[in-house]
């Protein structure tokens, strides 16, 4: 699993030349993957999973198993809980004992960037638990850099505080993010859009950053972009809306869609927007329930999307099948995890091939 590091690349990073300055860029999620990385949920404290831990672990296994139909899956697990993870996960899923707190690996794991020669760097943002929302995140604050070192890859540590779920990229230098995340005083106090854009260039090769307003009412992540949209290809994305005018999400989705319409990418193309409706639950929602279909994982040859045992599941599957022609669409019941505020994309991080 350890990779060979170019001495020239290591020297360039040591001299202060960032990945962006060396021509590295974060690939689009539809690009080929070497593996999918996840992290095992184990914390049963009341401010984390509490009595819902077993259901979350069962749900986690369903997601990992589905993704493993398409590509290698590697699960980081706290050494004290690695044996349990190994016993519950299918044999084709690797378990890697490393110190971690929780399973939202899109936010805590590294961002992998790649250059034209196929070289890969692990780029790590500062993780402060979505603006100090929860205690006991010290291990998660270090897991991104720890995994990069474990893989034997060069590490770039960004001074920017943020999370992978706050970004979507097209692999050509376009980044879409939200003002309520990276400009939030609980992450990067005093930083301007220009400041954030500069650091995103250095960390992941951003050439153009599209800013959406985000969601001030979403209290955990402050409005991550991966609950709003996903790229189907460069210049094409799926955007999720809420069709119910009585739902507060209807206004939030509308404001973000309005800001997105007419935007051009780093290559000057106007972005094509496909629409998908958010899930509707008959059972009562909690204030943290995540009902996003676009919070999905794009794998090698397939897309793993959520289901919520609701009539909107079938329509979502059809829309994904049209947006990703030739790809197999698998739906995974997410009711064991969605009430904690996240989805499949939040749990996963792709490592490019």
TrEMBL record:
Top-level lineage group: Bacteria
InterPro entries documented for this protein: Peptidyl-Arg-deiminase_porph
SUPFAM superfamilies, per the entry: Pentein
GO MF terms, alphabetically ordered: agmatine deiminase activity; protein-arginine deiminase activity
Gene Ontology biological process terms in this record: putrescine biosynthetic process
Swiss-Prot/TrEMBL keywords: Hydrolase
EC number in record: 3.5.3.12
Name listed for the protein in its UniProt record: Agmatine deiminase
Species of provenance: Leisingera aquaemixtae
Phylogenetic placement of the source organism: Bacteria, Pseudomonadati, Pseudomonadota, Alphaproteobacteria, Rhodobacterales
